[in-house]
Amino acid sequence: MSKNVHTEAVNHLFDAILSLENKEECYRFFEDVCTVNELLSLSQRYEVARMLRAQKTYLDIAEKTGASTATISRVNRSLNYGNDGYDMVFERVSVDDDSES
């Protein structure tokens, strides 16, 4: 069973994130809040999820992102059995992602 993340501290963090207005503000905030490795890990998981939704193989994903098969498997489990957060975001940013790919 997972830990409850619905805490006052997490609410404050999400309020702070929702106050950010552009990518530059995101960079400034997340570079202060996260270590470089934490930020790179988060972005790697997001890229893994994008590639899984695009039907890429684990081998292709591992080669392009450097993610371990364990990480790819965890992200895949979230995509299939999670709270649909990735899919919600993919729907909202699909136009931007398609133009950059």
UniProtKB/TrEMBL annotation:
<dbReference type="InterPro" id="IPR038116">
    <property type="entry name" value="TrpR-like_sf"/>
</dbReference>
<dbReference type="InterPro" id="IPR010921">
    <property type="entry name" value="Trp_repressor/repl_initiator"/>
</dbReference>
<protein>
    <submittedName>
        <fullName>YerC/YecD family TrpR-related protein</fullName>
    </submittedName>
</protein>
<dbReference type="Pfam" id="PF01371">
    <property type="entry name" value="Trp_repressor"/>
</dbReference>
<dbReference type="InterPro" id="IPR013368">
    <property type="entry name" value="YecD_YerC"/>
</dbReference>
<dbReference type="InterPro" id="IPR000831">
    <property type="entry name" value="Trp_repress"/>
</dbReference>
